[in-house]
Amino acid sequence: MDIVVKSEELNSLVERHKAKGDTVGFVPTMGALHAGHLSLVEKARERADIVVVSVFVNPTQFNNQDDLINYPVTIEQDIEMLQAAKCDILFNPTVMEVYPDEDKRVFDFGMLDKVMEGEFRPGHFNGVAQVVSRLFDLVKPDSAFFGEKDFQQLAIIKRMVKDLNYNVNIVPCPIVREADGLAMSSRNVRLSEEQRKESVLISETLFESKILMKTKNIKEVINFVVDKINSSSLLRVEYFNIVDGDTLQPIDDWRRSEYIVGCIAVFADKVRLIDNLIYKNFHDAC
């Protein structure tokens, strides 16, 4: 595995592979890798000849500076995991390498970034679009792989690719969960032992709510999820929205859409966890 920090060296390596006709798959990460990230690398290996993974903690997407300061950095462990996963190129740039000049771009995503994460983390998705577009410019991938756990982020990136006319195929990859159901996240390592056990309530409640959709309306399902998770003294729901999977706008009737997703953010003390559940997806039936 080649490990590079300079964009010039990255460009040289990628161009060398492309000259041979190789396709390039790209997995952007902020490090602190876990099995969820490695599943993206595995998907990239299946779909592309060369796999590039970036490890870069992007400062422009943190609206809470404490979150940036506390974000886990485990680059030595990340390198070992990527080597075992047969990553071809690791791009581990500095902030100055990604942003040689201040990125003042402001993106317009319509209503996609006005709800859920966008409501509670203002500026977050603009920072995501800045870094992903910048990395696309540097890596020049044929395809890029993103986890469905960050469901709203995935929608934003698809919109950005369309708006900026990138010739990059965005490949969504299913949520990877721990054996007990908790969605894998780099933030999970910050949970205390007691919080870690209690956080399973998030996925358990979401799975249970999918059964309830057969007999309950959307408002009742929302109330059930929020009330059950908030019944724990260790957890606090920040939001739980049931939305159209394409527009991300809240819906009030199961018949309103053929693609329905429940998205949730929960605090375990200061650790913020997100998850989602697809209630209905017409695309799966096609």
Question: How would you describe this protein?
Answer:
The chain is of the alpha/beta class and 286 residues long. It folds into two domains: 2-173, HUPs (Rossmann fold, 3-Layer(aba) Sandwich); 186-279, Pantoate--beta-alanine Ligase, Chain: A,domain 2, CATH 3.30.1300. The chain is built from twelve helices and nine strands. The protein has helices at 7-19, 35-47, 65-70, 75-84, 95-98, 117-120, 124-139, 151-163, 193-198, 200-212, 218-230, 282-285; strands at residues 2-4, 24-29, 50-55, 89-91, 143-147, 169-173, 236-244, 259-268, 271-281. The strands form two sheets. It has a six-stranded parallel β-sheet, sandwiched between helices. Strands 7-8-9 form a three-stranded antiparallel β-sheet. Helix 10 runs antiparallel to helix 11. The longest helix is centred in the middle third of the chain and has 16 residues, at 124-139.
Poorly predicted segments = none
Question: Structural class of the secondary elements?
Answer: alpha/beta
Output the helix-strand order: EHEHEHHEHHHEHEHHHEEEH
How does the major sheet shape up? 6 strands, parallel
